[in-house]
Amino acid sequence: MSEEQVRAEYFRRAEASCLLEGLDSSGDDLYQRLKAKVISGELDGGEMMRLLMEDSKLKASRLRPELAIAG
Q1: Largest Cα–Cα separation, the chain
Q2: Domain span at residue 54?
Q3: Rounded Cα gap, residues 39 and 29, in angstroms
Q4: Domain count, the chain
Q5: How many CB atoms within 10 Å of residue 8?
Q6: What is the pLDDT of residues 10-57, one digit of tens each?
Q7: Quick one: DSSP state of residue 24?
Q8: Residues with Cβ within 8 Å of residue 44, at least 6 apart in sequence
C-alpha cells in the first residue's frame, strides 16, 4: 500500500467514526481541499488542523456581532 493510500485509509476510518457521532464533513469545501492535500503529501495533518482552526475562528468572529444583537 502506498503512503497516499495509507493516508486516504486513515481519513476514511476517521470520517466513518465521525459519521457515527453525527458529524459529516462531506459538505465542507475547505476540509475537502485540505484533505486532498494531506492525502497527496502536499500538507501534513498538523498544518491542516491549524488551517481549519483559523477558519473556524474567523467564522466565529463574524458571528459574534450577530449573536450580541440577538441576545
Answers
A1: 53
A2: 3-70
A3: 15
A4: 1
A5: 17
A6: 999 999 999 999 999 999 999 999 999 999 999 999 999 999 999 999
A7: -
A8: 38
